[in-house]
Every structure is written in structure tokens, then in C-alpha cells.
User: Fold Phospholipid transport system substrate-binding protein from Halomonas caseinilytica.
Amino acid sequence: MMKPVFSLVRLHATLMLLILLVASLPAQAQDAEHPEALIRDSIEALMSQIEGRRDYFAQHPDELEAVVEDNLADVADFRYIGASVMGRYFGNATPQQRSRFVETFRQSLIDTYAKGLVTFDYREIRVPEAQQASRYDDQASVSMEVVGVDGTVYPVSYTMRLDDGQWKVVNVIVNGINLGLTFRNQFDQAMRDHNRDYDAVINGWSPQLDVEDLEEGE
Assistant:
């Protein structure tokens, strides 16, 4: 049986913002900015939405999930991510199974990050001025650093791709842990455990990643 994605009650100085840090910028503004500018602008925008209201959102989780869902819809390419997580099994899945997994995966992240936002604690978030140049015009990697309350620095790297004139997140690497690859390996193992029963895997999907894994890194 698959366990919940994070031990939320133990969440402190860890990186539950992840994709949400780039989720609050309106889609129409993305065309005019470079990926790293989107990251910087969205940090301030998202923090303004939740700062001082964490207690309220903790008591009204449905409202926070609605905010998260709206934000993620503009920035995360869930269909691309879902296909990547399914990996080699994507080709043999039916269109209905593909769509259902994308929706299941999307909802699992929304639920997790909404809860994480009201418990996340940090001292500083910074986006370095110097960013690695991309080899392709439609791909980018944006680096960020999250400083925990104890002074520990957690590096975060967003993999982004240009889709129909908008930059969208397709993967996140936290403290050296490639979340996309981690989830893909978990999907592969679940398919093995369930004798390649797509419906059983989708119905029971709950990606596994402990807080300690993110803190310890590779």
C-alpha cells in the first residue's frame, strides 16, 4: 500500500513551495518575461497571497486548494509531466488511462502543496542573478535557493519549456533529488508490483517522498 507523499506534520524548513513559487504570475504576463524573471516576480506575488493568512487557510483548506489549483493551471504542464512519470508505460495505456493518471497526479500535488503552504517555514528565498544559459530557445533551467530557519541552504532547480508562447514547469530538482525521475521510478515499481495493471496503479497512486529525503539530498 502506498503511503502519503510527505509527512506534513514534520514539515519544517523544507521545500513545499516547489512548483508553487512560480505559480502565481498571470499567464498573460509570461510572454514578456524570461524564466528567471518569472521566478523572482512570482515569489513576491505568491507570498502576498498567503502571508498573514496561514491560520485562516489552515482552517479553510478548500479555499487554499482552489488558489493552488488556479495557480498551477497556468504554470505546470501536467500532461507533459504525467507522460514523463508514466515513462515507458505511457505508450500502452489507453487515452482514458492517460487522462485519468494526469488528473490523479495533478490532484495529489494540489492537495500536498496546499497543506504544505500553511506549514512551510523559511528564512530567505533567493534567485541568483547568474543563471546557466540554455542550449535551446524553448528550454530553460532556473536555479533558486531556499534558506531554512537553521541556515541550511536548499538548492532548487526548475526545468521549464516554452509551450505555445508560455513558459511552463515540467520538472523540479530539490537538493539534488530529481522529483520527476523519483516519481517515474515509483510508477515503474508500482506497475511491477501490480502486474502492469494500469487501473490498480492509478487508483492507488500516492507518490512517496519523505521530508528527510529532501533535507539530506543525494
Summary: The chain has one domain: 33-216. The CA atoms of residues 2 and 204 lie 7 Å apart. The longest strand covers residues 153-163.
